[in-house]
Amino acid sequence: MIEVTTSVLAAQTFLRGMPPGHLDALADAATDVTFPARHRIFAEGGYAASFWLIRAGRVALDLQVPGEGPVVIETIGIGGLIGWSWLFPPYQWKFGAVCASPVEAFQFDAAIVRSRCAADPALGYDLITRLARVLAGRLQTTRTRMAAECHGMAPAE
Known about the structure:
This protein has helices at residues 6-10, 20-27, 110-119, 121-150, and strands at 30-35, 40-42, 50-56, 59-65, 69-76, 81-82, 96-99, 103-109. By secondary structure, it is an alpha+beta fold. The protein has one domain: Sandwich (Jelly Rolls). Strand 4 and strand 5 (69-76) form a beta hairpin.
């Protein structure tokens, strides 16, 4: 386990360029965690109490499909963000997440981060802007995959 500090967080892709004061606020809400392969980090419909930045390994995001069970919709690797449902009421996961390999990550306490964002709107704006970039990228990836599947082509990797 490593100590979660401002300088350690500053090196994370998602947080790169964030002001030191914002990183301090996040470092106090973070812990270093590890999960074994096949560990379910969270399940669709569960309460979203945390979010994670992946330091090592891969996490598969899945969706429950009636009659089929969980279907992997995307795999997130090093530097990736897992979870955004913690930010939006009713704080309920829209997808599930399971470790595709052993995973090392920083886990953030959502309630603490939300309270710090409420107390410091600049921190909240910074986080939401970064989160919007992640969501836009994932939406574009999904759009490209769907277009390729509709045309009978293999999606680009």
